[in-house]
Design a protein that fits this description.
With 286 residues, the chain is of the alpha/beta class. The protein has helices at residues 47-50, 67-85, 88-96, 120-131, 154-164, 184-189, 207-216, 256-272; strands spanning 19-22, 38-41, 61-62, 113-116, 136-140, 149-153, 167-170, 194-198, 219-224, 244-246. The chain contains 8 helices and 10 strands. Strands 6-5-4-7-8-9-10 form a 7-stranded parallel β-sheet, with helices on both faces. A 3-stranded parallel β-sheet has the order 1-2-3, covered by helices on one side. The structure holds NADP nicotinamide-adenine-dinucleotide phosphate (NAP) and glyoxylic acid. Glyoxylic acid (GLV) binds at residues 43-45, 64, 254.
């Protein structure tokens, strides 16, 4: 950690740094720190950190896990699911066109939702949706069990989960196994007129395939918080697409008030020789 002796923006002695607390620093920032003992990510997703070839391979990497952040994610997912279920995005569009056009009102129990990824975020989201009356199915790499949620894993599980849902919420980490998971063939597995809520990473979605699926009526709507290129370029077709709702990567922000405690706990654990919490499994990529 940079302390009083080392803390100047440009000049510090790299040998005094033993903990790096980082969000997504420029590639190479963590190289050349000979006494580094812990990299603590301020983000839940560590795909960008892991993509830096100079990230020291032998230093433990911990990610941000904060119940406050999980709660924020559950709020965003509930907003998106509720808005799709009750056609609130359609009403916002109708208002701009001065159109008085009521839609049929479905009950929550008539709107099956799939949650892809049943980790910290996915579990909080699935539980929030269950409490709000939605039938929820979940998908994870390893078999999981979650009260009130029909859980699945593996390739066959993915097809089943996608085919059964009216709304699919993505909360997977971005890894080589999940990159581009939402593409023409997975969209073809989804119900005609289903919707996608991507709150995880832009790299999960093949953007041209999403536009094609929306254009053909295969998909009805997409709520996107994350994009292949961020900020989303001003001339990107998603901005003005009537079937796409854009958020600026805000589904669950790191909250310094609670995140600082998470970081302090891990720094204390390192200093005391206790186990570090929420270590990333580098072989799995999350
Ligand atoms: P997590 O606790 O590590 O959970 C990941 C889940 O995904 C686990 O259930 C895991 O399965 C599953 N999974 C991973 N690879 C899989 C695969 N190949 N096939 C099927 N399931 C797979 O992660 P988290 O804290 O919930 O965060 C998830 C992601 O949300 C982050 O990586 C980040 O990209 C994103 N995020 C976005 C925002 C935002 O503001 N938009 C904020 C925070 C996080 P197992 O349970 O079997 O391991
Ligand atoms: C945000 O996207 C995070 O991974 O924390």
């Amino acid at each position: 950690m940079l302390d009083a002796r080392t803390r100047t923006a440009d000049a510090f002695d790299p040998a005094t740094v033993d903990v790096a607390i980082v969000a997504n620093p420029p590639g190479g920032s963590l190289a050349g720190l000979p006494n580094l003992k812990l990299v603590q990510s301020l983000w839940a997703g560590v795909d960008r950190l892991l993509a830096d070839p100079t990230l020291p391979g032998d230093v433990p990497l911990a990610r941000m896990v904060d119940p406050m952040m999980n709660d924020a994610m559950a709020q965003t997912a509930l907003w998106a699911v509720l808005s799709l279920h009750r056609a609130f995005f359609a009403y916002a569009l109708h208002q701009r066109e001065h159109q008085w056009q009521p839609h049929a009102q479905r009950r929550a129990d008539e709107v099956p939702v799939a949650v892809l990824g049943l980790g910290q975020m996915g579990t909080a989201v699935a539980q929030r949706l269950v409490v709000n009356g939605y039938p929820v199915a979940g998908w994870s790499a390893r078999p999981r069990s979650l009260p009130g949620v029909a859980t699945h894993s593996g390739d066959e599980g993915l097809t089943r989960v996608l085919a059964g849902a009216q709304i699919v919420v993505n909360l997977l980490p971005l890894t080589p196994a999940t990159q581009g998971l939402f593409n023409a063939s997975t969209f073809a597995c989804m119900r005609r007129g289903a919707s996608l809520v991507n709150l995880a990473r832009g790299g999960h979605v093949v953007e041209s395939d999403l536009l094609a699926a929306l254009g053909s009526g295969g998909l009805q709507h997409a709520v996107l918080d994350v994009f292949c290129v961020e900020p989303l370029p001003p001339d990107h077709p998603f901005w003005s697409h009537p079937q796409i709702t854009v958020l600026p990567h805000v589904a669950a922000l790191t909250d310094p008030r609670s995140a600082a405690e998470v970081v302090a706990r891990n720094v204390r654990a390192l200093r005391d020789g206790r186990p570090i919490e929420h270590l990333v499994d580098r072989a799995r990529g999350y």
